[in-house]
Sequence to fold (464 residues):
Amino acid sequence: MKSIEKEPDAPIKKEGFTTGFAVFFATLGSAVGLGNIWKFPYLIGANGGGAFLIVYLFCIIFACMPVMVCELFIGRKTRSNAVQAFEKLKVKPFWKSIGFMGIIAAFLIMSFYSCVAGWVYLYIFKAIKGDFAGISAQSAAAQFSKASVGIISPILWQIIVIAVVSAVIIAGVQKGIERVTKTLMPILFILIIICDIRSLTLSGASQGLDFLFRIDFSKLTAQGILVALGLGFFKLSLGMGTMLTYGSYYTDDNNLIGTSAKVAVSDTIVSILAGVAIFPAVFTFGMGPDNGPGLLFMTIPLVFSKIPFGNVLLVAFFFLTAIAATTAMISMMEVPVAYLNESKKIPRKKAVLSVAVIIMLIGILASLSADGASLLGGAKVFGLTFFNLFDFVSSNILMPLGGFLILIVVGWFLSKKDFEYELSNKGSINTKTAADMLYLVIKYVTPVLLIIVFLNTLGIIRLS
Ligand code: PFF
Fold:
């Protein structure tokens, strides 16, 4: 029997990323995901375009980036997983609950995320086979319902996704995560730019761009502000220990503020590039931009199938979406795996396999309820299907709450000196002014912003 005793202070010889380049691509790989290509376009569509984009950018700068820096700071300083990090910080045991909450959030997200990623994998094959050639709106809807409803196909594809992600994680931080993200992220950029160029040469290009960038605050609601914040947390993989875990693999000489800014900017660029690929095509064929989650799986095949070379484009589009989904899932899965491996001393392979089985079990609930729960006899919890419940609880509650607690622990329970020392790479770069300003935002501004948004979510105050 292996000992599973915890040794919070024992030095761990940890495998980490090898270069700044690897750090950047792995972190960006976590941030860029279905959030950019699936959630961002339909949310911007539903919340009125450019005005939503401005609020989103505001949330990224004043709420999300400070949380990201805090997570990276804790991760690199302690070189530990999401739970053990708080033991090493020597704060009250209560704060470890951030890590446990993060692990729960990771399971919830992975359950529905792997389900959507499974549809994406399937759509690559469907596009290659030419299933979308000359389809009508009805047959696009029928194909999507065939892909997403039912038992065998959705669950099979979900299992394939989980198997691919597991294989990468078993290979380890350098041979798995680093190698895969460094190879795939540049390919994703090239593919999305090809899709953009094609889309911008369509007749609806100006209408699509107008929709994406026109600033009309009258369309923005208080609900829209909440959605933008939740999206920001989801987009940058925050509040659930993912960035903390990746931070523990960062190189000693990485500029944490610089990397956070570069990742936030690049991730936003990818979201906008995804919008630029999608909306011109959507408007060219007179479709609505507010088709909800079906935008990716019904509208896109429909409109791309009408464009010359559209089928090649569709393959490229779903392939890049699959890359995004896979690299993001890798980072989610790493949160519980790192915990089991480091804190519970379970060998990496065994840890990955156990996590994979749990995701499959919860994932099946998400998968069977994705069509409105008919397969589960219409089962709903708090009026939501399991699929929507897992999404809502993780993005709107656990991630912002985790982010809030992380800010509080850094701003109020750890020393400012330690924070500045770590951000300056132990005094080797001059980040004093930036760190000072950031500290003020972490201590006062972001927590207050988050409290206002929470009170609004709970209906205690009304933003309007
Ligand atoms: N950032 C990913 C996306 O935008 O799709 C989602 C995500 C990845 C959320 C990793 C949470 C996480 F830990």
